[in-house]
Design a protein that fits this description.
18% helix; 6-stranded mixed sheet; alpha+beta; 7 helices; single chain; 426 residues; 26 strands
Length: 426
C-alpha cells in the first residue's frame, strides 16, 4: 500500500512537470505598432495638416491595393512584399542579432517573408552578419528555401532569391537564420532563436524611404513571423488600432494568453487562397437601418482584412448599392467634384454630422457594427467624405474601419474575431 502511494505520488509529480514544461513553451506578449505619421515614426512630418495626411494615406491605399492585386498573380511576388510608394502604414521595432541591433520594419499582414536590408560591409541601417555571433545561412534544401518557389543555389549551398516588381522595385539576397528580439512592452525583451529571414543584398525601392529597413511578414505563409513562432504563440495574434489623431501607440499581440473573449466577440471563417499570404473573409452585405446592400458579383464576396490599407474598398456592384442607401440616409446634396480619390463627399454646412449613418458589415456568422468615425472623415475644413471607395480588382476591409476593434487572427482554427474596445486604454 505504501509503495503504491509513493508510485502514485511520483506519477503525479511527473505529470505536473510535463504540464509545466509544455506550458512554458507558450509565450504571450505584445509590441507597439507605430503609425507612419505618429511622432514616434521616423517619417513623422509635423508640418503636414490632417487633410494632407489623409490625402496621402488615401493615395497609398490605391498603391497598396494595386500591389496586393499584382502579388496574387505573379509567382515572383508570392513571398516578398515591396517597399513601394505606399511605404507601409504601421511599423515595429525589431532587434536582430547577438548583440541585438534595432531595425524599423514595416508590419505587413499582406506578405509572408521577413526581410531586411543587408550589407557585406558595415553600413548604417543595414544588417551586417559578421557583427552577430548567432547568424547562419539557410541551405538550399530545407523547407524554408523551397517555400520561395523560384530560388538559386548560392555560395556554400546557400539559398538565394531574386524578386522584381512591376513598379521597378526589386530585391535580391540570401536566406539566413538569426536571433530576433521583439521590443516587448510588458515583460522585457525575449529572444526568438533561428528565425528565417531574407538578407536583401541589392534592392531598389520605388518611392521608398531609407528610414525603413525592411518588412515583417505577418501573413499565413510558412516564412511569416506568425508561422515561424506558431508553436510558441499557438498560431494566434491580434492588433488593436487607435484613432489616427491619437498620441497613443497601437498594440500587436501574440499568443493565446493575449486573445479576446466575451459575449461581444464575433468570429468569421478565414478564407485562404493561393498563395496563403492574405486573410480573406466572406462579406454577405452591408446594411444601414433596414436597408441592405448586397454584391451582385462573385468578386465582391471575399474581402481582405488588411491593416496596411487606409481606405475600405468594395467591388463596384456592392459599392454602388451602398452609395445609394447612404445618400438616402443623409439629408443633403453631395458635392459634384469630390477631392482626391474620394467618391462621396458633402459640405459640412449642408448636412448634420449627427445624421451620418452607422453601418453594419455582414460577414459570414459575424456582424461588425461601424460608427461614422469608421466610414467618414473630414477632408478639408468644410468637407466630409466617405472613406469607402469602389475597386473592381480587390475588396479590402481597411484600417480605418478597424479602429477601436481588437482584431484576432487564429490560424489554427482558421477564423478572425472582432470585439469593440477602447484601444487607447489597452
Amino acid at each position: 500500500m505504501h509503495q503504491s502511494l509513493i508510485l502514485f505520488f511520483i506519477i503525479f509529480l511527473f505529470h505536473i512537470l510535463i504540464q509545466s514544461l509544455t506550458k512554458g513553451k507558450n509565450i504571450n506578449f505584445n509590441v507597439d505598432l507605430i503609425h507612419r505619421d505618429s511622432p514616434l515614426s521616423p517619417l513623422y512630418n509635423s508640418s503636414l495638416t490632417p487633410y494632407e495626411l489623409m490625402r496621402k494615406a488615401a493615395l497609398r491605399s490605391y498603391s497598396r491595393a494595386n500591389f496586393l492585386r499584382a502579388s496574387m498573380h505573379i509567382d515572383d511576388k508570392q513571398y516578398v512584399s515591396s517597399l513601394t510608394e505606399y511605404q507601409g502604414h504601421y511599423f515595429m521595432e525589431v532587434y536582430i542579432g547577438s548583440p541585438p541591433v534595432v531595425f524599423h520594419l514595416i508590419a505587413d499582414t499582406g506578405s509572408s517573408l521577413i526581410w531586411v536590408k543587408y550589407s557585406q560591409d558595415y553600413k548604417p541601417h543595414h544588417f551586417y552578419p559578421p557583427s552577430s555571433s548567432a547568424y547562419q545561412n539557410v541551405s538550399y534544401n530545407p523547407e524554408f528555401c523551397k517555400a520561395l518557389g523560384n530560388r538559386n543555389v548560392g555560395d556554400s549551398e546557400s539559398c538565394e532569391y531574386d524578386r522584381s516588381y512591376s513598379d521597378g522595385s526589386y530585391t535580391s539576397g540570401i536566406l539566413g537564420k538569426e536571433t530576433f528580439h521583439l521590443n516587448l512592452t510588458t515583460h522585457g525583451s525575449h529572444p526568438f532563436h533561428g528565425v528565417v529571414f531574407g538578407c536583401s543584398k541589392e534592392h531598389y525601392l520605388y518611392g521608398g524611404n531609407s528610414k525603413f529597413q525592411g518588412i515583417v511578414g505577418l501573413g499565413a505563409g510558412v516564412l511569416s513571423l506568425v508561422s515561424q513562432l506558431k508553436s510558441q504563440i499557438e498560431s494566434k495574434f491580434s492588433y488593436c488600432l487607435v484613432p489616427i489623431t491619437s498620441k497613443k501607440t497601437n498594440k500587436l499581440r501574440f499568443g493565446a494568453g493575449e486573445m479576446i473573449s466575451g459575449v461581444e466577440v464575433v468570429s468569421t471563417p478565414i478564407v485562404f487562397k493561393h498563395p496563403p499570404n492574405h486573410y480573406y473573409v466572406s462579406l454577405e452585405g452591408i446594411s444601414i437601418g433596414g436597408n441592405k446592400a448586397i454584391t451582385g458579383h462573385r468578386r465582391g464576396k471575399h474581402i481582405m482584412i488588411d491593416s496596411g490599407t487606409f481606405l475600405t474598398m468594395l467591388h463596384s456592384s456592392l459599392y454602388n448599392n451602398l452609395e445609394t442607401i447612404v445618400k438616402n440616409a443623409i439629408d443633403g446634396t453631395p458635392i459634384k467634384n469630390p477631392p482626391g480619390k474620394f467618391k462621396l463627399c458633402y459640405e459640412t454646412k449642408s448636412i448634420r454630422l449627427n445624421d451620418l449613418p452607422k453601418m453594419v458589415f455582414h460577414f459570414e456568422d459575424a456582424d461588425i457594427h461601424l460608427l461614422p468615425i469608421h466610414t467618414f472623415m473630414q477632408c478639408l475644413g468644410d468637407v466630409v467624405c466617405m472613406i469607402i471607395v469602389p475597386n473592381d480588382n480587390l475588396s479590402i476591409f481597411g484600417s480605418m474601419a478597424q479602429v477601436n476593434f481588437q482584431v484576432e487572427f487564429d490560424l489554427q482554427n482558421k477564423k478572425v474575431s472582432f470585439t469593440r474596445v477602447n484601444c487607447e486604454a489597452m
